[in-house]
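User: Some background: our group keeps a shared notebook of sequences we're curious about, and every so often someone picks one and asks for a predicted structure to add to the entry. Today it's my turn. The entry only has the sequence so far, pasted here. Could you supply the structure so I can complete it?
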Amino acid sequence: MEDLVLTGTHVRLEPLERRHADGLVAASGSDPSLYQWSAVPKTKDEAARYIETALSWKQAGTAAPFAILRVDDGIVIGSTRFFDLERWSWPQGHPSHGRTLPDGCEIGYTWLARSAIRTAANTEAKMLMLTHAFEVWRVLRVCLHTDVRNERSRAAIERIGGKFEGILRAHRMAADFIPRDSARYSIIASEWPAVKLRLGQRMERE
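Assistant: Of course. Here's the predicted structure to add to the notebook entry:
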């Protein structure tokens, strides 16, 4: 994946690198109670493994992981990533044949420090990522999943315009190491203009 840097007014998403390890630990240590349903790195060793896993996905061409930094002071306030990047096998003669950019993707592994909760940080990060996905990559669909028990995350996805598709049973390993049921949401290309408008309106209020 190309080394994307997505910059807004409040946050900058830059490629996750080993040098971000200390910043991730500081961000996650601000309030461990926030991460009941999310696996976040809490020690330097955990951060190192977290980053190495993300970088291996990036090298395989299936993910683009980011550190989320506050624009004002460059402090790491969390992480997020594009992953499960899909490239469909368009047949010869189809206008999309030979396309190398993703046709679909997921946004996830998103978490923020306590200082960034209920600020414009999450809304702007989603705006930057969704704009890149739909307007640069021109994907047809963006998926978002969260632990079915994570009511705060589900409400946040619904607020930005994610459409609930259903429950995937025993979908992934949960943060508490049980088979996790995931609530699945998506935004498709035809819905993006309305979602973009909604996100812009939210950012004006935050």
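Suggested note for the entry: DSSP finds five helices and eight strands in the chain. The longest strand covers residues 76-86.
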